[in-house]
Amino acid sequence: MRRRVIPPVLASAAVILLLSGCGTTADGGFAMGGLQADRPRPSASLQVADAAMRRGDAKGAALLYEVALRADPGNIAAARGLAAALERAEEPDAAVAAYRAVLAIEPSDVKALRQLGHLELASGQAKAGADTFGRLLAIDPSDADARDGVAAAKCMAGACEAAVAEYRRLLDQHPEHRKIRNNLGFTLLLAGDTAGAITVLKPFADDPRASPSHRQTLALAYGMAGRFDEAERIGRMDLDQASVDANLAFLKARGAPSADAGPADGRGGAQKAPAPSAGTSADGSVDRKR
Which intervals of the chain are annotated as region Disordered (predicted)? Predict the structure, then answer.
């Protein structure tokens, strides 16, 4: 006889009932011992939700954190868990709402503010992101990540020159901060200053701690300046030849000048970078590396 497999969410719910001490209600609606069966305790739901997160079941964990929140709407652990689970489940709109719910319980939750700010920028909410990172700066004016978020929001709103100035100040204060260097370089590309971007990004070529996304921002800068040999050399550090060829073909199709043609705008290139979602690196991924 084939055994029926219980779906993971149903199995998790069954475990909650067991952890809550609930028995069957075959005798007039009363559990064993003559006591009315209790609703699942929030602590039991949290235990099972945490276990679901550890095994990678973010969606199942989100359902379980919601159970805990319904039983105790002010439970900060459940609220934090729900927000993290929804973010991991790649449900950004729901995660934004969940992080805002966390902050309604604990307005100074630094982690929730940081995650919310990144999600807001990634979804194109420049003003909301700037406001959220501003709240972080009110807590700690030296928070480089929050200042980086404010600068990204400025560029999203069309004030890229102000963002460049802010990034330069940040990089002067934190010269080893790779995320700030990467974002300054990419913002310069957005502003059309390919020569300036190359100058800022060039250290990534020899930096063993630079990430592939950092090096590919440099490759993009070389390509947009028409320096295709250098773009290919840097691109091949992390990509196969077919991917490098495709990237170069894309840039050439967009009219990137050849190196022999000379600059067309007096700053090192006529083309502006194709803008990704704000708060992302050149390859489209959120860049939080130093």
Answer: 256-290
